[in-house]
Amino acid sequence: MPSTPAAREAGGVTPEFRAFDPARDSDDVVRIWRETRWIDDEKTHKDALAVFLADGEAEVAVLDSGAECMVHRTSGHIVYDRTALDLCAISAVTTSHVGRKLGLASTLTARALRHGAGTGAAVAVLGMFDQGFYDRFGFATAGPVVLTQFDPASLRLDHVPYRPPVRLTIDDAAEMAECLNRTMPHHGQVTLDPPRIVEAEWGFLEQPFALGYRDDAGQLTHFLAGSLKDEQGPFVIEMLGYENGSQLMELLRLLRELGDQVVSVKMVEPPQVQIHSLLATPNRQRSRSLRSDHETVARSITWWQFRILDVPAVVAAFEWEGDPLEFDLELTDPLTERLDGNGWNGVAGTYHIAMGRTSGAVPRHPSGGPRLRASVGAFTRLWFGVLPASALALAGEIAAPTELTERLDRVLRLPPLLPARSF
Question: In 3D, which of 132, 47, 155 has the Cα closest to residue 305?
Fold first, then answer.
């Protein structure tokens, strides 16, 4: 696989790229994560990292017999409208201070995407430190989420019955992971396969605690978990699992009852509700709490990126009951330049796209009909409904006849794209 000249020879040393070996590489990875301040010196963080590395797969770049970069990937699923697609989550990209600017992370990230595509993943996702770096691999910015902070005592939920929850600990991590994977599906929902993912996340939380509810058979049906560092909060909710809307509302009612102590709750707004509409006098609260640690506020943030790895699989997930629409898609993929041509080499090429009750994408020469030109990142944003075709054309991300963009605006009407978890 091609890499930068620096990656091929860094200070006279040729990097070695290989699978992560716990016996050989664990101490080096701990050093990298501490050096970059992803973790501190606490034993709980080191133990949580060991659990994280045991789930999923990772590769390292080795210089002078020590690992200086690691890329970790995790299998899972992402929901497109109502269809679950196989997913490759790039769950960690970490480089030591001495391994920077050598092309190590770039090489390992490209290898991770090839591996994900080779194992059947249709989409890849990751959390970005900022826009730009991952664009070179075809990733594009996904939809925003609403990060909200509010006084839980102000939730107007008198119509929702209250019942005492059960206390959950790290011993219940496997059940919490199963519950997360049963969470009420929605467009863009991400679930991860590894059974110990919650156990790992729990170890990274500061002052963690969790509450939830079980059914008559003892199965955990819905829960919330997060960090409460100070007596009055904010209570930062990191995990929220529920199977239906009634269970979600019961969890919000639980938060209200914690409001006799906790002054504020911070969480990503769930897809099924608008928190602002559930609060009593939210605008008055915002004015009174302005510039406070417990300010009532909602902020839109975009922290994740994604890209298509399998065009036919993703296109086939679309269903349209109206008049069929067909066009040619001319797709570019910057990842092609980073791969050696052996095996999966990105998704660049020309496809014929048919949209209808049964949709499909077939690689073939142009048909002579309307043509849409796009990078894989721009097409991913279009197909998942991040922005309409006309907006992407206005920004120069895609090129197509006006008649085609107008038609795509009417056909590609999808719910908001929300991952509803971190990765």
Answer: 132
What predicted TM-score, i.e. pTM, was given to this entire model?
0.90
Q: What are phi and psi of 19, to 5 degrees?
A: -65, 145
Would you call 394 helix, strand, or coil by DSSP?
helix
Buried b / exposed e over 219-248, threshold 16 CB at 10 Å, is: ebbbbbbbbbeeeebbbbbbbbbbeeeebb
- Pairing label, strands 166-168, 57-63: unpaired
DSSP 279: B
**Contact yes or no for 81/413 (Cβ under 8 A):** no
Cα separation, 104 vs 220, whole angstroms: 42
Give tens-digit pLDDT for 324-360. 999 999 999 999 888 877 788 899 999 999 999 999 9
Between CA 216 and CA 223 the distance in angstroms is 16
**Residues 344 and 124 sit within 8 Å (Cβ to Cβ):** no
Task: Calculate the alpha carbon distances from 146 to 293, 320, 419 in Å.
Answer: 18, 29, 11
- Give the integer Cα–Cα distance in Å for 275 and 58: 38
How many other CB atoms are there within 10 angstroms of residue 46's CB atom? 17
Between CA 399 and CA 353 the distance in angstroms is 16
Residue type (1 letter), 307: R
